[in-house]
């Protein structure tokens, strides 16, 4: 799709595992460059309907010209997928046959230096997915305590040098507030002891700040519960994650809803778990094949997990 640099990952796998079919009702919780939404519209034609949510208003500007030919089969909604249940109920878009969450950032967001997601391009230290509200990464970096910064860089970035990095940030911001990605990347790089492997030393810190600025773990937890509540029995939820923390949260949520049979002393067993009940469709996460990774390096770390809602 032109207008976007983003290449949808695991597209065929998602369509197949969601069993997209004519006349179905689907939600794409992460519109991005519209690749998955486009395929959902195509495969559910001529009468299927797709609601596409994104926090980032610019996603709609980019994608609208390409998808508006679908008329009222396509329902674009600016918002957080954490609020998916309320958004779908308000639009009378229930129950749903299939839902997709393709987490993280789009290439369009990453490549736009003005958004502040990337340490590769110097720009304002923003990192908000929803540019209409909330605190920026600069607000966070210049106001959070040293301990608070160390905790979040350690937890969300799994960064061993979190203590040194947060100390350096606090020392540098006392000289002058840190307002650009370039300056932050330099501070982190020096504090972490310079470049070693192929990964830029600021990668983990940038990931941690992005997750905190956008409350990604909180949104994911609410989004997963909301999505499961909207599915009809037999409907499916597909989630693509790009790092271990996200994948762990998805796996844990799916496990809780899958539940387990606990033996009773008096004989027999009782099911224990979270409602609504699901069954795992993918026992192991689906990953991209060699060919896809070659054409789209972003696909390398993608992990797709799918569950199906059962009758409660
Ligand atoms: C990896 S991209 C999705 C790409 C899309 N599947 C495609 O085919 O082009 C992720 C998108 O999800 C959006 N996003 C991330 N977290 C979100 C949230 N909590 N609520 C709504 N949108 C979110 C981002 O703004 C970004 O546009």
The CATH superfamily of the largest domain bears the name Vaccinia Virus protein VP39
* CATH fold-level topology of the largest domain: Rossmann fold
Q: What is the CA-based Rg, rounded? A: 21 Å
- Tell me about the largest β-sheet: 7 strands, mixed
User: Regions with pLDDT < 50 over 5+ consecutive residues?
Assistant: none
CATH class of the largest domain, please?
Alpha Beta
Sheet with the most strands: spatial strand order: 3-2-1-4-5-9-8
N to C succession of SSEs: HEHEHEHEHHHHHHHEHEEEHE
Estimated helix fraction? 40-55%
- Helical element count? 13
Query: Which CATH architecture of the largest domain is right?
Result: 3-Layer(aba) Sandwich
Care to describe what's here?
The chain has 312 residues and is of the alpha/beta class. It has two domains: 11-108 and 217-309, Vaccinia Virus protein VP39 (Rossmann fold), CATH 3.40.50; 131-213, Orthogonal Bundle (DNA polymerase, domain 1), CATH 1.10.150.170. It has helices at 11-17, 35-43, 57-67, 84-90, 107-111, 137-143, 146-157, 162-175, 181-191, 203-213, 216-230, 244-258, 290-295, and strands at 25-28, 49-54, 74-78, 96-102, 231-241, 260-263, 269-272, 278-280, 303-309. Strands 3-2-1-4-5-9-8 form a seven-stranded mixed β-sheet, sandwiched between helices. It has a two-stranded antiparallel sheet with strand order 6-7. A hairpin with a 5-residue loop joins β6 and β7 (269-272). α7 crosses α10 (203-213) and α8 packs across α9. The mean pLDDT is 96.
